[in-house]
Structures are given as C-alpha cells and as structure tokens.
Amino acid sequence: MRLAARPVGDVKPEDWQHCSETVEDPGPGQFAGRTLAISLDPAMRGWLDDRPSYLPPVGIGDVMRAGTIIEVTASNHPGFQPGDHVTGVFGVQEHVVSDGKGALKVDTSLAPASTYLGALGMPGMTAYFGLLDVGALKDGETVVVSGAAGAVGTIAGQIAKARGCRVVGIAGGPEKCAMLTGELGFDAAIDYRAEDVRKALREHAPDGIDVYFDNVGGDILDAALTRLAMHARVVICGAISQYNNTTPPAGPSNYLSLLVRRARMEGFVVFDYAQRYAQAAQEISELIGAGRIKVKEHVVKGSVDDFPETLQMLFRGENVGKLVLELV
Amino acid sequence: MRLAARPVGDVKPEDWQHCSETVEDPGPGQFAGRTLAISLDPAMRGWLDDRPSYLPPVGIGDVMRAGTIIEVTASNHPGFQPGDHVTGVFGVQEHVVSDGKGALKVDTSLAPASTYLGALGMPGMTAYFGLLDVGALKDGETVVVSGAAGAVGTIAGQIAKARGCRVVGIAGGPEKCAMLTGELGFDAAIDYRAEDVRKALREHAPDGIDVYFDNVGGDILDAALTRLAMHARVVICGAISQYNNTTPPAGPSNYLSLLVRRARMEGFVVFDYAQRYAQAAQEISELIGAGRIKVKEHVVKGSVDDFPETLQMLFRGENVGKLVLELV
C-alpha cells in the first residue's frame, strides 16, 4: 500500500494506492518473507504529514511505514531461516525483502504473533518507558491514563496497577469503561463522551493526579491539568484527538497549573529506549504470565486493501486494545 | 492600600482603596517600621483573583500583599533593633507592625535597599533557581529568555552568560533590546513588537534552544516551542501576557514539540527554595561585585497612592529591570 497523496484532515481512500508488483528474490545478505500481521498505530497519521518530526514523513509513492510481523520464506541472511517469525518496520505490504536491519526474531510459541505488535511490541514499550522513565512513577501514586482502552493505555494502566497505584482510565463509551474497571482492574473509568471529565477526576482522584499519561490531547488534557497533585508528571505520549485537525492543535490552556503545582509536562519517543526493550519485554511477559496484565487485541482479518479503512477505526475510537490487521 | 474589589481584566483605580489608620505600637515580641520601598511584581496580578493558586488570594479589604524593605522604628523583638533594614512580605503600607515572621535583616551598606527587592530578592532568587534547578542549565548551552528586560529576565540572562551560555533575550522595543545586547552582554535580542519571533529564533538559536525561560506565555511561548533542541527544558516562570485576560489563557498549541524534541516543560514557585536563598544571594552578590551582573532597577518615587498606577507599568512593559516604588 503506497501513499498516493498527502492527506488533509481525515485520511481518505484516494490518499492510498495499491500496487501489484513482482516479488523479488532476496539478494546476498537478505531474506524474504510474507506478512502475517500489520500494526495500526495513531502515530501513523503524523508520518503522513510533510513536516519535521521524530521520523521523516512517508514519501509520496512510498510503501506505507508500519510495524509488522512476517514469516521468513527464503533467506541469504545468516541470522534468519525460513519459517522464522520476525518483527520489524517492514511496511504495509504482503511480501517483504529485508537486509535484517531493525528485524527481531520472536518466538510465537510463547505469545501469539499479534502480541509482538502490541503488549510486547511498540505499544508495550511505549507504556513501560513512558510511565516508568518519563513519568517516574512511584508505587502507590494516583495515575490517570487517557485513551485508556487503546493499545498503550491498556498496558500503561495495568503496569501501574501492578505497582500498587490507584489507576483511573479515561475512554469513550460504557463498554470500554466497563472493560477497564472489570476485566483490567482499573480503580475507576471515566466515559469522556458522557461525563464531565473535570468533575469526574475530582471524584476519582480526590488527592490529585501524580502521573497523567496522555494519549489524546485536547480538552481531556486540559481537564487533567486542573487536577494535578504537587510535583505531578504529565507524560505526553500522543494526541490522537488532534491528529486529523487541519488547524494547529488546541494548546492546553490550563498549562499554568504546571507552575502552581510545580509540575512538569514531558514528551518522549519510544525509539530512544531501544537498548532497553528486552528488559521491558521480559517484565511485561512476566506480568502477562502472572495474569496481572491482560492482553487486549482487536484483530481485523483481511488483506492490505483493508489497511486504509482499518486505520480509520483508530481515529473513530472503534478499537479496544491493540488494533492489528491480520493478513488471511 | 487595600483591595476594594476583584479586578476583571486590567486592574482599575477603583479596585483599590487607600485607608488612613492609626499606627499601632509594637506589642510584645513585635517590631514596628516604616516602609522604604515596595516591590512591584507581575505575580501580584494572580494574587488578586479568587482561584486556587500557590498562595491564597488577597482578600477584599485586606492590605495588598507585597514584598517591601522597611526601617525598624521601634522594637520589642530581640532580633530587630531600631535603624535595622528588614525585608519581608509587609504589604503596600507606610507603616508596619510585624512579629518577625519571614523578616530578614539586610545590610544596605553592601547594596542599595532596592536591590534587596530585586537582584538579591525574589526576582534574583526566581532567576537563579528557575534557570539552574528547574532548567538544569549546563555550561555552554543556548538559553532564550522572554521578558528579558524585566526584573527576572535581566538576572536570568546574565547568570546564563556567566556560565558561558549563548543567551538570546526577547523584549519589547528597540531600547530594551539595545540594553540587553549592549550593557548586559546578551548575544542577541529579539524585539517581539517589530520582529517575527519564530524567524528571529531560527537565526539567533540556529542549533535550537536548550533552555527556554518563559516569563510571558502566549504567542512567544508558542514560537519558542518550535525551536527546541533535543531534550530541551522549558521553564514556566510566569505568563505576564495572559494575566489580565478575562478568558482562559491561550494554551501553547505547539506543545507537541515536547514529544518530537523529547523535551519537558516545568513550572515552579520560588518559595520552595527558601532554604537555599542565602546560597543564591551569595553567588549573585559575587557576580554583581565582579561586574558580571549589572543590576537594572526602575525606581518610581512617590507614595502608596502611586501603587495602582505603578503596578500597571509592568503590564504595559514600561519598566526596565526591577520595578520598585520608593516612598519619599
């Protein structure tokens, strides 16, 4: 799936172009594979805009960038054998040829392939380092997570619960909220579509928010800023509510509570923590094994043609947990 | 000078009430004094609003809160003798009775009385801890200061220069800018009234901003956010451009550059550093003595009746350096 045009606002079907091309054989030092599953991430929207960011934008005519898991079909690379399952940023395509750069062999007998795109992939890493390193979470603190029913939010909230924190999730709709407080064990959930978030935070975080893990931006960020505890940390992980805006994002007008509460707001990009992914994956695996993290995945089965429509599910809030397109 | 009404927007003369009252004698453990000079600070505007902040609001009918320097005229307090010069939050009034709480004896043979309200008072402390502790300034970094010709900005910029940093000041008008780059030795100055701040920052901070010390908020904060270096620190000291707003302050719509640049934005309140004021004052004194910090003061001579009008000078940007009302 190649990018045909720079989208303005919502990504439209005509912004994409599906090309059929001859599958190349792997050259020296390369391997080839077929894609098993494709990760869909809110960050993808930012990659489509031609402006400076932490990665260069996807070029017009380029295969869309995406994390995927593939099965190796042929290899001239000593590190990868046919049958191996490998994750990497291989893009939205059925067949892949790679020199192995950024590729990681994974064991799908320990966890399903899709989990290596979610709890044990970038979303899991993002939750882990955002909460523990950037947020400097301490045991027993009050944590509020927005986008709480998403890929990152579900993991972040459960890591915080595992550390003995009081965890409040913000999500859209009663089903997501029930899942958070039921299956995932959050202490409270706020349905931002039905409730006054500011008032609900006053109720559910009566002593203030120590760590606010923000995936959404906009009004919800502004509401959270009114409820910070002293020395709070606001972790800026994303701003999905703003990504399809054609005007500049709404800035958090309550940012001066950073001053009043001696608080900080800090952004991060998970790639900076690559050296420590293995450590994080190990810890998350153990929490999954112990039943303290429940993996939520939203698997759409289809072909690469379904990528554009599946991506839009993220921005409509239709997914619960990690959204994955499994190629069948 | 007592607060007569909660101001809406700009503070108006009728928001104040000047009362003449009998001067009381000091009781047991108290001293009395006459006010020599009154500090005028942007933060005063926030103290007039009835909303939660780092200090309770000034009550209707209360003497306006202000840092001042007084001369002791009579004392039943063992720590203070007639003739002593003492700083404290004694308020906008000609005569003071105090139990000594928060009072600090100062030596006006070492520095003029007004300097204990400026470079060696709250503004100096604010510059010092904001830059070095919150901003975690490292030698040789690029520092941008807004409100650079004000009480805090002049000191912050010169402390950074003394640490070998590249220092860019943002101020209003050619005279202030000439003073910054001339007398105070800043590397560059940007006149926000005449220049495109974003473009000017690109020129004067070509490698990005490591520490942005913000006194003003609004559009200038937003411009600075577009020019952050990796791992930048944005120190939220104040937001004078927003204090007289009757609507919520404009939030920084470019806050997502915190994510792209792995940067943080952090607020602080100088009172938290009270235990270390003496250390900071010592270091600033030495820099003044060595000629590396030039003290800029804007002294208005008058009576407490001149307080309302003098306060407005801050919000019109009419002061250069520390604004002080000296009672004559």
Automatic annotation (TrEMBL), chains A, B:
SUPFAM superfamilies associated with the record: GroES-like, NAD(P)-binding Rossmann-fold domains
GO MF annotations, alphabetized: oxidoreductase activity, acting on the CH-CH group of donors, NAD or NADP as acceptor
- For whether the record's keyword set contains ATP-binding, the answer is no
Which keywords, in A-to-Z order, does the entry hold?
Oxidoreductase
Annotated membrane-spanning segments are none
By its UniProt entry, which Pfam families does this protein fall under?
A: ADH_N_2 (PF16884), ADH_zinc_N (PF00107)
Q: Where does the Enoyl reductase (ER) domain lie?
A: 9-325
Return the PANTHER family for the record: PROSTAGLANDIN REDUCTASE, PROSTAGLANDIN REDUCTASE 1
Q: What is this protein called?
A: NADP-dependent oxidoreductase
Organism of origin: Streptomyces adustus
